Structure formats: C-alpha cells, structure tokens
Amino acid sequence: MQTEQNEAQGAADALRGEMKEIDAEIAKLFRRRMEIVGKSAAISGAGAATFGPAYERDTLARATEIAGSGMERDARALFTTMFGIASARRRAIANGEAPIAESVRRTAAAGVPFPDRAFVACPGADGSYAQQAVSQMFRMPTILFMRDFESVFEMVEKGMCPYGILPIENSSAGSVAQVYDLMVKHRFHIVRSTRVKVSHVLLGRRGATLDGIREIASHPHALAQCGTFLKSHRDTRTVPAANTAVAAKELAENGPDWRAVVASRACADLYGLEILAEGISDTPFNYTRFICISRKMEITPDADKFSIMLTLPHRPGSLNAIISKFAAAGVNLTKLESRPIPGMDFEFRFTFEFESSPTNPDVLALISELSQDPEIEGFTFLGSYA
C-alpha cells in the first residue's frame, strides 16, 4: 500500500515538474509577444493594420486547428483573451494615460476633505430617509427639499446646489431603477455614499384605527419592503406616492381617517400622526443606500470605491471580457447593474461598482484602458468616493 502511494506521489511530482517547465515557457513566449506588440505600437497605422481583425481571424483558425478536437473552444478563449490584452497594451503605449485617469489621479492627490457644512438638495420632506442620509453625511447641512429625483439631478447639474442626495438601492427591494435611468440623462459625479437603517411604521391620523384603514400610501419601494404586512390586509388598497415623508405630511394636512401611510417613526412626531403598526418591514435588516452627487469631481482622502457606466457591444462574450479585466486587476466588483437602452432591441447599459483606492495604479490603468477602448460604445466615469 505504501509503495503504491509513493509511486502515485512520484508520478504527480513528475507531472507538476513538467507543467512548471511548460508554464515558464508560456510566460517567456507571452513576454516576447507583448514586446512585439510594443514595437508595433510605434508603427502608427501600419501596426494597427498588421495585427488587425484579419490577423486575429487567421491566428484563431490556426490555433484551434493545432489544439485539435475537443480543445477548440478553450483555445479560442485563450487567444481571444490574449488579443484583448495586446490591443489594450498597444493603445496604452500609443495614446498614453487617458484624460479621465489623469483627472482621477490629480483630484485624489489634492486630498480635499468632505465638507461639514453645505447646501444639499434632497427628495421629499423632513422625516424622510433621504433627509436622514443627509444628516449622516453632513454635520451642518442646509437642506433644500425637492419634489422628485430628477429635480435633485437638475439642481446639481445646473449649479444651483453643490450637492444632492439620492437613494440607489435597498437591501430587500433592490435597485432604484428610476435613479439609474436618470444617471444617463445628467452630468454629475458621485462623491459620497451612506447606508440608512429603514424602520417602517404604519401612520394614521389621530384617532384612526388599523381596522378602519382602507388605503395605504407610500413610495413604491417602501410598499415593496412591507409586502408581508400588506398581504395580511388584502382589503386595503395601496397607492404609490412620491415620497414616504411627503405622503405623511399630506395625510396630516388634509388626509381622511381611512388612509394610512408607510413612513419612518420620525414622521409621527413631525406631523402629529399616530403609529398604527410597528415592525411592518419584511426584514428587520432593511437598509437603503444613498449617494451624494456633485457637479464637479471630488475625491476625498478616504475614497475606497469606484462607479463607472459602460455601454457594451451587443455580441457574445462582451460582458465577460470586461469582467475578466477587473479580475486581472485584482479588483472586487461589488455591484453590476444593467438597464435597458431605450429604443434599442434588448441592449443594455451596465453600471459597475468596485472597491479600490483612487491611487491604485492598476485601477488607474484599467480606467484608462476602458475609456479608450473602441469596442466600448459608451464610457462614463461616475465617481471615486468613500
């Protein structure tokens, strides 16, 4: 038995040694190939033509034939990845660092801290979760309450308010699709992010009873976060509202006794409403993440996250090719959001969030590469923030 184990171990060691030799040869050949790519970058138009699509097609044909039956797909994946690396290297040598990467580097180096005092545009009214997010981010804010999300974007984009607060995702209801769609329409930078604990209660007018409620109003996301409670009151109609706090304020001012709202506990004291039911969220661990936007790029010393938006070509493997670039840079993707492009047949725009310091040279090289890649139909840098 011991002899068989020794023989097996010896065979495994021999295979491992052979593989190490092959890996070393692959690494040497890869380096030689990239050196040739570097030389080709200096030959402006001729270099691009020499190693263009026709060359890649011929190489793939030869490589898959040499690889043989059963290995064609893997050989194609290997050489396609190598072509992508070579193209990116050629562009980096020929074009240098992209302007957006240089801007990130310069802004991060300035080391400007996040302000304590500022004018901030915020959707809703006092008592809203957005207002709580403002209070978490700024010690002494002057809040300008807006009627909807787009008004916040417009105030910031037009320079009428330096900062704006918007919800971007909830731990139980998911992403706020309207905010992601509005990101495409407006120019801004994300400069901060925070999470707010969401504790929904059901509020009614003074003297109202839960049995007498026939209609419950709130923001659609808040209603979605209280699905179990609402299902237990099937005779009660749900009505969408622009904001949880706005719904509470309107109920206090002129609402009927048979209407209630889903809102924060703070709204009860602010608007003189009565708590009819507590703990109505589907989960006790309910958080909403808010972003702070600004017209100009601001990167504070504690920045540790990036957000970018990409429109990718509508063909197999395009998303995988991008994700592999993040993996190669050692970057942890924390969120990937896709939204349909209006007027396009099942084509999508992707928002990537990933963790990294803005001083990370590998990430700056990645940002530079993505922004200059002709295969990417649209690149938008959203921000580097804490």
Keywords:
386 residues; alpha/beta; Alpha-Beta Plaits; D-Maltodextrin-Binding Protein, domain 2; 6-stranded mixed sheet
If you had to describe this structure to a student in words, what would you say it looks like?
- The protein is elongated.
- Helix 1 runs parallel beside helix 4 (about 70-95).
- It has 14 helices and 15 strands.
- The strands form 3 sheets. Strands 1, 2, 3, 4, 5 and 11 form a 6-stranded mixed sheet that branches. A 5-stranded mixed sheet has the order 8-7-9-6-10. Strands 13-14-12-15 form a 4-stranded antiparallel sheet, with helices on both faces.
- The chain folds into 4 domains: about 1-95; about 100-110 and about 300-385, ACT domain (Alpha-Beta Plaits), CATH 3.30.70.260; about 115-170 and about 180-200 and about 285-295, Periplasmic binding protein-like II (D-Maltodextrin-Binding Protein, domain 2, 3-Layer(aba) Sandwich), CATH 3.40.190; about 200-275, D-Maltodextrin-Binding Protein, domain 2 (3-Layer(aba) Sandwich).
- The mean pLDDT is about 90.
- The protein is about 45% helix and about 25% strand.
